[in-house]
Structures are given as structure tokens and as C-alpha cells.
Amino acid sequence: MRKWLSLSGIVIAIDVYTKHLIQQAFEYGERVQISSFFDLVRFHNEGAAFSFLANQGGWQHFFFAAVAIVASAVMVYLLRKNPEQKLFCFAIALVLGGALGNLYDRLTLGYVVDFLFFHYQAFYWPAFNVADSAITGGVVLLLIDGFKNPQR
């Protein structure tokens, strides 16, 4: 279990560090074009995925923090319960690291810093961060694991 929690810790460290770099280098809303389809930005997300519940007056910060804490406890339990299932544990460790990385922002800043911004012509994907990437990658791996092991 230690290696999975270490992986989560690495995700958290990279997430917090990259967000810190963006906060030092960019003003809120500032944007630097890196390529024709990718920009670095500094956006603040007060909601959940795609700014869900972002403009709800503040109660959502406590709600999302509570959800992240409960989900993290469940994920640690799952890591303990299934140590022999490597793909499953790898995926859970990624999701756990991402959840705790974003939780850190919510608790210390009151919002999550997003900075990776992809687009194509007039189509824009919502900005995201390392934690969001780890969560997404972990969920994809959980789906793959679920299809490979349907008995679980």
C-alpha cells in the first residue's frame, strides 16, 4: 500500500507545484499561447468539473471538500482491501492524488487553480490541471480494469 500512497503523494506534489508556478507567473485570466491548440492560463474554478455549482454563494466549497475527504477515505480503504490488483490500485492512487491535490486548493484558496487550456478554432475545452488529469486517467484505468475483470 505504501507504493500506492507514494504515487498519490507524487501526484499531489506535482499538482501543487505546477499550480504554484502558474500563480507566481500569471495574473488571474492571463493567457499565453503555446501552440495553435494549447494555451497556458490562470483560471479559478470555484465549482466542480466544468465549474459545476461555481456560483452558489460559498456552500459548495464545504460540500466539495467533504465529498473529497469521504471519497479519499474510501479510496484508502480500497487500496488496503485490494493490494494484489495492480491496475486497480494504480488507478485508485491516481484518483486519490488528484482529489487531494484539488482539495488542498479548496481548503487553502477557496477555489481550484486551472491552467491547461486546449482549443480548436472556436471550440474550447474547459481549463484543467494536473490533479484533473490524474483523476481522468485514473477513471479511464478503472473502466479498463472493470472490463478486464467483470466479476468485480
Automatic annotation (TrEMBL):
The record's annotation in InterPro entries points to: Peptidase_A8 (IPR001872)
| Hydrolase among keywords | yes
Q: What pathway does the UniProt record associate with this protein? A: Protein modification; lipoprotein biosynthesis (signal peptide cleavage)
Q: Where in the cell is it found?
A: Cell membrane
A Gene Ontology biological process term:
proteolysis
Task: Give a Gene Ontology cellular component term annotated to this protein.
Answer: plasma membrane
Q: Could you tell me one molecular function GO term of this UniProt entry?
A: aspartic-type endopeptidase activity
What are the protein's UniProt keywords? Answer: Aspartyl protease, Cell membrane, Hydrolase, Lipoprotein, Membrane, Protease, Transmembrane, Transmembrane helix
Which reaction equations make up its catalytic activity? Answer: Release of signal peptides from bacterial membrane prolipoproteins. Hydrolyzes -Xaa-Yaa-Zaa-|-(S,diacylglyceryl)Cys-, in which Xaa is hydrophobic (preferably Leu), and Yaa (Ala or Ser) and Zaa (Gly or Ala) have small, neutral side chains
Q: Where is the active site?
A: 114, 132
Per UniProt, what is the membrane topology?
Multi-pass membrane protein
Task: List its EC numbers.
Answer: 3.4.23.36
Where would you find the membrane-spanning parts of this chain?
A: 59-80, 87-104, 124-144
Give the family from UniProt: Belongs to the peptidase A8 family.
Job description of the protein: This protein specifically catalyzes the removal of signal peptides from prolipoproteins.
PANTHER family given for it? LIPOPROTEIN SIGNAL PEPTIDASE
Q: What HAMAP family does the record point to?
A: LspA
Q: This protein is called what?
A: Lipoprotein signal peptidase
The organism is Candidatus Methylopumilus turicensis
Q: What gene is this protein translated from? A: lspA
